[in-house]
Design a protein that fits this description.
single chain; 6-stranded mixed β-sheet; alpha/beta; 9 helices
């Protein structure tokens, strides 16, 4: 599929999924999904477990290979030979459920590893950037601490700082608070709210309905591998007229 020649990345879409299908053996997880994300939007994806939400995120930065359709990054198909996977993942950052920090590295080393290897920053440049990001997430005093000495909420905030260190165009969050104790959820959501307010483009899979209602530009509801609803929080939590959405909300609110 050729890129749209009229595409203007500054005014239109940073990410666009076009009729995406994804199968795991005989199970079709995504069934012709279309979704576009504009610069500065906060798109929150909700839905029951197994609906394809996390798989869609992983397709956006090629952690999963799609079977049909196309993913566009700034108008260019990510299947194009000129799109390097390492470059795409640097520009389309991702934060996972379980932090994925290296246990044998300090907080500072976890954040600076990729910036030194991929962005070729010097030690001084990488450390200065990392310390600035740690200050933003409220963890500058933990820069020399190893992950085993950190709480789950602290680890997730460090994972966010690590992704931000690559200066991504868009951040993907795959249920970033689902592995946290309840009292730690707020500190991570607080950092994400600040990111949203700063204009960061974000796509977030979450079960935190209050957070979704507060920060989302749009809310997407997925079920059985398809998008069943795509609209504003007011439409979603008002009277959207979609029986499946209303049934879901009645169980989680």
């Amino acid at each position: 599929m050729e890129a749209d020649q009229t595409f203007n990345p500054e005014k239109e879409f940073i990410l666009r999924a076009d009729r995406i299908h994804k199968r795991f053996k005989h199970l079709e997880v995504l069934k012709g999904v279309d979704l576009a994300v504009k610069k500065g939007e906060v798109v929150v994806i909700i839905g029951p477990s197994g609906s394809g939400k996390s798989t869609l995120l992983r397709c956006f930065n090629k952690l999963e290979k799609i079977d049909e359709g196309e993913i566009f990054y700034k108008g260019v198909p990510t299947s194009d030979a000129t799109v390097k996977t390492s470059h795409l993942r640097a520009r389309v950052g991702m934060v996972f459920q379980h932090f994925n920090l290296f246990p044998n590295m300090t907080t500072l080393e976890n954040i600076t590893l990729a910036t030194k290897r991929v962005k070729k920053l010097s030690d001084v440049e990488a450390n200065a950037q990392a310390e600035g990001l740690l200050a933003k997430v409220g963890l500058l005093d933990k820069r020399e601490v190893y992950p085993q000495k950190l709480s789950g909420g602290q680890k997730q905030r460090i994972a966010i700082a690590r992704a931000l260190a690559m200066n991504p165009d868009v951040m993907l969050f795959d249920e970033p608070t689902s592995a946290l104790d309840p009292e730690m959820v707020g500190e991570v959501l607080g950092v994400m709210k600040e990111m949203a307010q700063s204009g960061m483009t974000m796509v977030i899979v979450t079960h935190e309905m209050g957070f979704a209602r507060e920060v989302a530009s749009r809310i997407v509801f997925m079920d059985e591998g398809q998008i069943q609803f795509n609209g504003t929080p007011e439409q979603m939590f008002g009277s959207c007229g979609n029986e499946r959405v209303n049934s879901f909300l009645s169980k989680v609110l």
